[in-house]
Design goal:
The complex is a heterotrimer.
Chain A: H1 8-19, E1 21-26, H2 35-39, E2 50-52, E3 61-65, E4 68-69, H3 70-82, E5 88-92, H4 95-98, E6 108-109, E7 120-122, H5 129-144, H6 150-156, H7 158-169, H8 176-179
Parallel strand pairs in A: 1-2, 1-3, 3-5, 5-7
Antiparallel strand pairs in A: 4-6
Helix pairs in contact in A: 1-5
Chain B: H1 4-24, H2 28-46, E1 53-57, E2 68-72, H3 74-97, H4 104-123, H5 127-146, H6 152-181, H7 186-195, H8 198-215, H9 224-231, H10 234-259, H11 262-268, E3 270-271, E4 274-275, H12 276-297, H13 302-322, H14 326-357, H15 373-387, H16 393-407, H17 411-436, H18 453-471, H19 477-485, E5 500-503, E6 506-509, H20 510-530, E7 536-537, H21 570-577, H22 580-602, H23 607-626
Antiparallel strand pairs in B: 1-2, 3-4, 5-6
Chain C: H1 2-33, H2 43-52, E1 58-59, H3 62-80, H4 100-121, H5 124-155, H6 160-166, H7 175-178, H8 180-193, H9 205-208, H10 218-243, H11 250-270, H12 276-300
The chains are: A alpha/beta, B mainly alpha, C mainly alpha.
Amino acid sequence: MCTDNPGVWEYIANWARKHSIWVLAYGTGCGAIELPPTMTSRYDAERFGLRGAATPRQADLLIISGYLATKSLKRVIRTYEQMYDPKYVMALGSCTINGGMYWDSYNTIKKLDLYIPVDVYVAGCMPRPEAIIQGIISLQKRIEEGKAEGAKKYRENIEWYKKNQREVLGDDFLPDYTWNFEGGI
Amino acid sequence: MIGPNNVVLIPILAGILAYFLGKIVKPAREGLTLASALTVCYFVFKTPFDKVIFFNYNFNLPAYFEGLKFGTNALSAFFAILIVFSYLFIAFTAFALVKDKDYHGTFYLFFNIVAGSLLGIVYARDLISFFIFWEMMTWSSYFLVIMNGKNPRKTGLTYIVFNVAGAYFMLVAMLMVYASAGSFHFDKIGTALALMPDSKVILISIFFAIGFLVKMATMPLHVWAPDAYTESENSFTGFFSGTLSKMGVYGFLLFFGALIGFANLKGISSIKGTSTLGYAIAWLGVITSVFATFRAIVQDEVKKLLAYSSVAQVGYIVTAMSIGTALGVAGGLYHAVMHTIMKLLLFITVAGVIYRTGKDKFSELGALITRMPLSFLAVLFGIIGLAGMPPFGGFASKWVIYMSLLKSQHYFLLIAMIVSSTTAFLYCYKLIYGIFLGHPSSPELLEAKEVPVFLWFAQVPLMLALAIFGVFPGLIVPYINKAVASLGFKAAFTSTTPYTLSAALGGFNGFVVINVLGVIFVIVLIWYTLFFPKSKKLHRLDIYWAAETPTEETPLHYGYGIGVELHRIPWVGASLSRHITNFYNKVAEQVNGIASVVKDIVFNGDGQIYMLYSVLTLVVIIMFLGR
Amino acid sequence: MGMKILNIVAYPFIAFIVGMLYMGIARNIIGRIHRRWGPPVFQNLIDVFKLYRKREAGSHGVMFHLGPIIMVTGIVSCLYFVPLLNNGVWLKGFSFEGDLILVTYLMVLGSLGMALGVGQGGVPFGVMGVTRGLTRLIGLEIPYFIAIIVLMAHYNTASINKIMELQAGGITHWGMFKLPLAFIASLFSFWGMMGASPFDIPGAPQEVASGPATEFGGKYLALMMTSRGIFGFLKLTLWVDLFMGGAATILILIGKTFLLFLTVLFVSAVYSRFKVEQAVDFMWRYPTLIGLIALVIEMVR
């Protein structure tokens, strides 16, 4: 039952992961308001096995719902690093892709992918719940195919990610123990 | 031959010798104490358990002075074993903890005298020797309470006032007994008491009960206990709360069981098969345990929490004993043993922790588990015992008490006891979390060392004892049966296998319980270790903190927080906001007022009045001499 | 012998599967109550499998690691002392070796182990959750104990097997009809112990970030979920044994437990959460009063 070599167990595991995604919604921007309807009666995302998680330790999917101020970025990184592999990130709205309407703002980040690995972007300003569900379905496909390996990517390119993060956060960088403790992330 | 009579003298002489010899050679104090403890252990174990032995000391006194009588029977032996064990373990503890204190000599003097006087109490076979040793215990422990010098005036005064008052109630009762029996001798008293009028028996019983209830710190006479337990010398507190309070239990059983007899009291008036007096005391016991438990939870001082918990646990014993059935007394005895073990273990460990860290509050401790694994384990065993959880001995004793209450159909007492027993989980958790888990309240806690090696000699055997009584709950049953039989009951338990405990309505097999637990634990542990990737080691501060990054300065220890919501529960909050000390303070104020009035009239500083007093005294003396 | 071993091995697995399915059914039915489809009934099995297959988990120390293990140990051990069936030798476990009081205390043992793990985890939210749980317990245990005292007094035994035997012979002999008030009192405690909604205080995600479970993820959370499933089934079975005459076959057991589970579900679907002091206060008022009336009736009889 060792997890290192993919095999039939990993196949079954991926199937289970696909059907059980616990969501930590990081309500940064306007997208936060789209998430409750996604979960509740109208769109009922629980059909797909989605469920809210209370803390990053329990979550599989981090939803960044909109623009990210640099101040929030620190918290997002912290949250992402606290989640356990396998973990996925879904970015909602144009702001996370190219800055959107905040393209020339001095304190929002423009490309989320520079700081943490993103699995699925859902474009729109704002994307409606249907679009979020569409995004989840495509995430499920990626999980099933074994392509949603953001954690691995993050671990392998940790220096690059930390460089990017440091450029934005500057002096307000995360303390060492969060990512550089006993072998790092 | 060295029998119960001389055993009493060994610690007392050792104490006196230790004091003076220690002035020349300091280690002689420890050595003598340890030697005396081991000797006493040896002799107590050599004495046959349930044999009745008597010794008389007549000292060539006039005939109306009966002389002192000592002896042993199953009940005495039962408590003697508790005493000598505690004596030994506390001797080990003191070895490590007292050596640098400036009251080094006096500690050993009084500690040994206390141990000797405890043995004297259990071996006394007449009321006079009983009372002598009782007073000796009170006074010598008084010095151990005030020795630490934190708040000697208030604590010491409360302690001595309550205990001496209790003792004098007892003394009055003893004199009343003597007035009708014409003897202080235990065997003669029994028959005399049976012939006495009911009202007098009740009065004597109440007076005796007051004396013992003070020692057992039962409400409303418990006021002295929390402070005295908290402020006494750390290494002695285990003995104080674990063993000294059991003298109340012994005295209670001696008087109500052996001398007057539960059946006799029941004959006077009874409620549901229990004597009315016993029933009232039983209620006092559970009420004590309920309120003391609530109060224990909200404490910030570690020792004070344990002190209140001690008051609460002895409350169970009081209740179980005073319903006066064979099973009830057995439950009381069983719990007395367990409580002694648990409280010795906990107080010794806490003494070690305080010694190493210099801190005695939950809000100042925390995260010592990695630094003191053995002490953590000791406290874990202790709290599992206190909470009455299955694999350890605490469950067995609590189970017997529950069964005794169920069998004698005292359901309301049982329900009240459950309130206390369930609430106890909270302080148990606070105890272990506040000291050992969570985050350190100050950085130097991360450099604390494990408690001194000499404490291990006490901790490890006590932990083993708790575990053994849990696995073999029937091991102690023959001894309890004998002790109960010496009070004139039939054997409380019928089964005799060491694995099982069965009485009244049910039974359980401690051996099976521990095996099931152990096997499942091992299976899960192996499965968890072999079939899952190793978990990564997280930094202490790498916790979920709402996406923030806590620093060393962030207050993350929740030590004091446990129990604050208790204030918000309507009835509990109300009980916590009132304190019986206020009542006693009011009484004290009134007494002060009256006294000052009396002083104004009687001792007004007028020389003529004083002269009058002396003349009057002289007249009275002459009148008496003239008769 | 083979049968016996099979019996014993089967115990936790039956409890796990059924318990997990019940939790899934609960989610589905609550979904229907919300007028949505809800997840499939085996959703919780998928969840727990996924959690077991998480590649990472973090540990804060030995006690943190042992916490969930002790929890599952306590709960599975407790399960072995509750007979699942009342016919002959099948699925009796070690229920002849311990009585109701042992089971009651064993039920708390796992949570205490868990609490130690939470303590070493060092999250104040977790400790708050534990404290809330223990405080809630003060409330829950009182009606429960009153009910079982009535039961033990009525049947004059503390053995679960004997209580079950004495209820044999038709629906009118069941504890819930013989001692209706005690049953009602115990039902409140039961809802609380099952974590049904007015009493779901310890693991409140909105206030204390899922309480004791806050710092546990991956395989640890998986073990916690496993034990929660087993624990749910254990409590259902215990109540069926005590008040519904036990069950002769697994199917009857599932039927009875499901009926009992529906009450939990319907209560939790419509109520919002109490504060901890409200829960204790509530428990000490109405259920305790009902229980005491039952006790007085029993004592008079």
